[in-house]
Amino acid sequence: MILLNKLKNFQIFGTFLIFLFALEESDERYIEGLNVNLGEALQFLREYDREATAMCNRVTMAQWQFVTNITDNYRRKMLDEQTLKAKFDRASWRKAVSFAWSRIPDPLARRQLKMLATRGRNSLTDDKFNEIYHLIAEMKELYTRTRLCPYKENDHQCNLVLDPDINKIMAQSKDYKELSYYWRAWHEAVGPPLKNKYMRYVRLANQAARLNGFADAGDQMREDYEDDSFQQNIAEVISAVTPLYKHLFTYTRHKLIDRYGDVIRKDGPLPAHILGNMWAQNWQGIYDIVQPFPAAKKLDVTLDMMLQGISPLRMFQIAEEFFTSMGMIPMPPEFWRMSMFEKPTNREVKCTASAWDFCNRIDFRIKQCTRVNMEDLFSTHHEMAHLQYYLQYRDQPLLFRNEALPGFHEAVSDAIGLSIMTPQHLHRIGLYNNSTDDYESNINFLIMIALEKITYMPFAYIVDQWRWRVFSDGDADMTTRWWELRLQYQGIVPPVTRSESHFDPASKYHVPADIPYVKYFVGIVLQFQLFESLCDVAGHVGALHTCDFYRSREAGRLLSDVLSVGSSRNWKDTIREMTRGRTDRLDAGAMLRYFEPLAQWLRRQNQMEPVIGWITSQEDTALFAHWYKSKSTCLKPTSIALLLILNALYWIT
C-alpha cells in the first residue's frame, strides 16, 4: 500500500514536472499587442517611413557637420539631434508593439513591424532608458579621452591617443619592453574605470531584453541573424578555419622566436603585445618579420601613382570607373559636390574614412583625408563600395535600406578589395608594370592577406562569445573568461599577470560602446563567398586569389541583384541567390580555397615543428586564471524546487 501511494504521488509529481519544464522551455519570445488591422498597420508604416526618413536626414547631417568641422557648437547640435531621435524611436516602438504583428498577413509589413518591435531597449522605463543611454555615452567618452604617457620618461607630455599614436607604435616598434609598456598602460588606463559602469550596463541591457521577450541581451543581439542555428553555424566556420590558423600561428611563432628569443616557448602560446596590434587581431604590423621571400618584388604602387601625377580626386574617379565598368550605378552629382576628399587646412576634422547615406535617396558622400598612396587607393574603393550598396537599395522603404545581415556591408566592400588589390588588377589600370605571376610573389601576397584576414577570425569570434556569456551567466570573473577564450581560440596570453580588477575586455572599444562584434566575423566569411561567386560568373580561370572581375558585366548584374533587396528578406535567401543556389549558410569553403596555395606552403614549412598550434601550460593560465564558481554548474530555482518536491513526495505515506 505504501508503494502504491508513492507511485501515485510520483505520477502527480511527473505531471507537475512536465508543466514546470514546459513553462521553463516555452518559446514565447516576442512582445506584441492585439491590433491585427492590416490597414492601420500599413498606415502607421507609411507615416513612420516619412517621419523616420526626415529624422535620419537631420541626425546624419548633424553628425557630418561635426566630424567635418569639430567644434563644441556642432557637437552639442549633434547630441541634441541624437536625443530627439532616441525619443522618436521610443514612440515608434510603442506604436509597433501595439500591433499583433506576427499575425499581420502582409509579409513585408510584418517584417517591418518585427524590426521595430524587437530591436533596441525601448521597453525600459524612461528613467532606466535614460540611464543606459547616458551610461554608454559615458563609457565611450572615457575610452576616447584616455591618454598615455610616452615610454621614455624624459618626455612628460602624457598626450598619446590610441589612434593613431599608440596603434602606430604597436604596429612599427619591435622593442619587446616598449610594446609591453604600451600594452599594459592602455589596458590599465581604460579597464578599471569602466568595470563598474559595464556591470550596471549588463543588468540594464538584460532587463530591456527580457521585457522585450528575450532570454537575455545576447539572445536579443542574435535575433538580428534570424536563425536559430546561427551559433552552430559560426562554430562550424571557426572549426573549419582553425587548422589553417594554427599553421599560420606556428610559422609566425618560429619567426618571432628568431626575433625575440626564448621569451617565447617553442610549443606555447604567444604574448599578446608583439603581434603588431593592441589586441593581436591583425598581424600585418609584423609582416616584415614573417615575410617568406624578402627578395621578391613588393606590391606597392605608391611611387607609380606619384609619378603619374594622380590626385585624390583622380583616385575617386578610378574607383567609380571600377563599378561603372561592371555596368553598375555611377556616383550622383551630390557625391562629387558634397564629399570631403582631402583634409581641410582651416579646421579640425575626423579623418577616419567613412561612407555616408543621408537617407533621402539622392545625397551620398565619402569623408576621407586622402593621401596619394596605395593604401588610400584601396580605401577609396572600399568606401565607394559602401556607397554602391546604398545606391542599389535606395528605393526600398527606410527599414529595408540596410545590409542583408549584420556584416554584409563590410563583406561587399572587402570582396571588392580582394579584386582590386591583386597585381593583375593594378596592372590592368596601368599602375603595376610587373604582371609576372611568380610563386614567391604569390606566397608573399597571400601571407600578407592572411595576416589581416585569417588572424582576425578567432578574435572576431570570441568578442561576442565572451559578451553573450556575460549576459547569460553573469558578470563574475569577466577578465578570466576573456583570457580563457583568447587562449583557446587565438593561442594568446597577456604579457603580464591579470586580475579581475583590470577588466581587460574594455580595452576594445566595441565592448564599452555597446557595438555588436560578431558581424565582423560574418563579414570575413561572406566576403570570400561573394568574391568566389563573382569570380565564377566573370568566368575566372586559375587560382582564386588571382581573380579580378573588373569590367565583368555578369559580375555587376549578380552584385546589383544581391544588393538591391537590402534587408527586405531573410538573409539566407540573399546568400542562396549570391551563391547561385549552392548554399544559404555561412561557409568557410571559399576562404579555404582562396588560401590553399598558402596552406600547402605552410604545411611544408612546419614539417619540423614539434607542435602545430600551442600547448597550454599551468604557467600560461596562471597569468590570468583564478578560481571561480561557474554559474553553469548552478541549479536553476525551478530545478531546486523540483528536488525539494521530489524529496517531500518520497516521504509521504
UniProtKB/TrEMBL annotation:
Residues annotated to bind Zn(2+) 2: H382, H386, E410
Glycosylation sites: N69
UniProt signal peptide: 1-28
Disulfide bonds: C149-C158, C351-C369, C535-C547
Family: Belongs to the peptidase M2 family.
Entry GO terms, CC: plasma membrane
Gene source species: Neodiprion lecontei (Redheaded pine sawfly)
Co-factor requirement: Zn(2+)
Binding site for chloride: Y225
Molecular functions per Gene Ontology: carboxypeptidase activity; metal ion binding; metallopeptidase activity; peptidyl-dipeptidase activity
Keywords, ordered alphabetically: Carboxypeptidase, Disulfide bond, Glycoprotein, Hydrolase, Metal-binding, Metalloprotease, Protease, Signal, Zinc
PANTHER family per UniProt: ANGIOTENSIN-CONVERTING ENZYME (PTHR10514)
Cross-referenced InterPro entries: Peptidase_M2
Gene3D superfamilies listed in its UniProt record: 1.10.1370.30
Active-site positions on this chain: E383, H510
Co-factor binding comment: Binds 1 zinc ion per subunit.
Name listed for the protein in its UniProt record: Angiotensin-converting enzyme
GO terms, biological process: proteolysis
Gene name tied to this protein: LOC107226576
A Pfam family that the UniProt record links to this protein: Peptidase_M2
Binding residues annotated for Zn(2+) 1, in chain numbering: H382, H386, E410
EC number in record: 3.4.-.-
Tree of life domain: Eukaryota
